[in-house]
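Usage example:
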Amino acid sequence: MKIIKVVLHYWFAIISVFSFLVGWGMLAHSLKPVQPTQASPVNTASLPALPTIQAFNGSSGNGGGQNFSAPSNQSVSNLPILRSGGS
Amino acid sequence: METFHFRAMNTDILLAAQGSPARLAEGFEVAQQFIEASESRFTRFSGQSELSELNRSAGKSFQASPDLFSVLALAQRFFHQTRGLFDPSILPDLRRIGYDRSMDLLRQQPPVPLFESLMAGERPSFSEMDLDEARSMVLLPPGMTLDLGGIAKGWIAEQAAGLLSEFSSACAVNAGGDMFLVGLPDGEEQWPVAIEDPLHPELDLTIIKVDSGAVATSAVTKRVWKQGEKQRHHLIDPRTGEPAATDWLSVTVIASHAYEAEVFAKALLIGGSQESEGIARNSGTHFSYLAVDQNREIWGKQNNLEYSYVH
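Running the assembly step on the lines above writes:
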């Protein structure tokens, strides 16, 4: 029984050291990542300039924006929203 | 117009009415109490409900309350008018595919697939239910159990609207899409009702304009769950005992009564585009319907129904 324990002890030790060395060797001989030496140019789309906040303001008077308002002839109903869609 | 929201029957309830706030507050309370009491009577998810008592009494005569007897009589009538496509006795099939608890609970904990779920069992035909109108006695054949979910919800919405109308000149009760409308709001010629997009329930697909009466929608996209690898929905085709394989996603029916709208919405959805004409023709009643297909296109029989797409 004692002999078996000793043999197992040495067996695990040898296997551990061997595995470590194999792993080291594999890493040492693996391909290295390519280091970029020069930045490659990237094509970017040119975006139109955003309109200024004044362009959306009716008081600016420059006519370049839109005025958003409810139509004056639209009656505001106080009816609740009745929705049907199954339950 | 005043509104009042609460949750009952596993769905959102909306009461809307015009009138003096004090009277409406009383009306809302009366309607809410009726809805909650009716839910306790008709639910299959409580062993104490009258419906559960009836289901346990199969094989013996059962003394039904006037409300339960009324709904059973309607169910029997619509079973024949839809030629069996509306069938409340499919409860064993619903349980077999996993709908054995309320949808709120089912969404929290999906059912475990059982071996029994692979096999649809034999069940007695709903036509074998015997109603004694003179004594309000019901005799279910042995082995029959009923689910009155949809028709009861429509009936409850309509009754509640009737109660609320005693406190208001115009009112609406919307029970999760099954609604009953009484009168017309001041200044309005019709009630606008938005029909949900079945694939995107947060969006409206169309708005219809309806007079007093009922609107109900049935959809295969709402009460859905997974049983093992199988996608399930709650709309059982009584001919197969399985969730209906239909080419429509939802059907909305506009009719005189909420229970009628609910029943025919279900029958038309099960029948799909192939059988809808026959179902409407043989129904023995007049209604309009809108069906939404897989491409979200609207089909149906309008009968002068005015509607417009939202987008």
